[in-house]
Amino acid sequence: MFGESQQPQDDAKVNMYLVSIAGYYGSPVTLVCVHSPQDDMLVIAGEEPLVELRRPGFGMVTNLNLDAVDMRFENEQIRKSIHEFQRRQGQETIDMDGSLARHSPENAVTQDGFDERGPKYRLAPEISNGQVAVLAACAFAAGQSSVERALSLMDDITSLISTDLYSLTTI
Predict the structure, then answer these.
(1) Residue 153 has pLDDT above 90, yes or no
(2) What is the CATH number of the domain that holds 58?
């Protein structure tokens, strides 16, 4: 799946996950994704036929009713995932080079007014499984970034508390 030059470096923490989507236009698909929380870069790194079992070292995102998934992508998450995809495009924090670029959902989504929650979107009837998989990948990466930020904040607070306690006990 990854060539030797594409292996993540040991000192760089990355999250690798599979996004398996079926039920939309075309063949079911699994996208192999790599997300770097440090720079919030999401790389759509590969494509495979539908994978329904978790692989060691990979998270699992799907809209299917499978066991042991990290995120079940539901229709209610579409709006947020579209917003996240558009944010990533604008900030250039998503990479889908080569043949994987055909899964970009930008041409399958149109804005359809506003409501109390912000922009509303309409999906093209022929939106493909791959395009929905990219949206699901963006939603999962956003959640992982939030978790990473929360853990980092907790580490900072623990460090401050530990330092203050040490200072108080040495007086």
Answers:
(1) no
(2) 3.30.420
